[in-house]
Design a protein that fits this description.
about 150 residues, mainly alpha, two-stranded antiparallel sheet, 4 helices, rod-shaped
């Protein structure tokens, strides 16, 4: 049951990452913080679930004669029957596939986020560009930022 719970949480994480990707691609940055917060919540649930899995693995490990911190592959090797080997092997394949999908979506979202951050930086840099002050003949009077009120008049 613990492995099923982790699989479901990984599916939920995939959904949340996909949701974030769609928001990024659509340029709907207004909602990104909600999507990011939801991703963080699922990651926290996965951490808690991982602790539960560690407890279960330690219990099964004692029964099957494997170390407390055994991997799923080690449990498969030590399983007392083909049925257990098959169940754990199926979970291992599914978990590995979901983790691969998570990594791909995470990388894709990071590219979109970096591009968005770069665009904001460029826009802000353009706003900070010095325009200087000019006379009515178009000659530059000052090299610093233009002012709304000319105090020298």
């Amino acid at each position: 049951m613990q492995l099923w719970q982790e699989r479901e949480l990984l599916e939920l994480l995939l959904f949340k990452l996909e949701e974030q990707r769609l928001l990024l691609e659509a340029g709907s940055v207004r909602w990104i913080h909600f999507a990011t917060r939801e991703i963080e919540q699922v990651l926290e649930q996965l951490r808690v679930s991982g602790l539960g899995r560690d407890v279960e693995v330690a219990s099964v490990g004692r029964e099957w004669g494997v170390p407390d911190a055994a991997t799923l592959a080690e449990l498969i090797d030590a399983a007392p029957s083909d049925a257990w080997r098959e169940v754990f092997a199926e979970h291992r394949v599914a978990l590995t596939a979901r983790m691969s999908e998570v990594a791909q979506l995470k990388d894709s979202n990071e590219v979109h986020l970096r591009a968005g951050a770069r665009a904001v930086e460029e826009m802000l840099a353009g706003l900070a560009a010095s325009t200087g002050e000019y006379t009515t003949r178009g000659e530059r009077v000052r090299e610093d930022t233009a002012r709304i009120v000319d105090k020298q008049m």
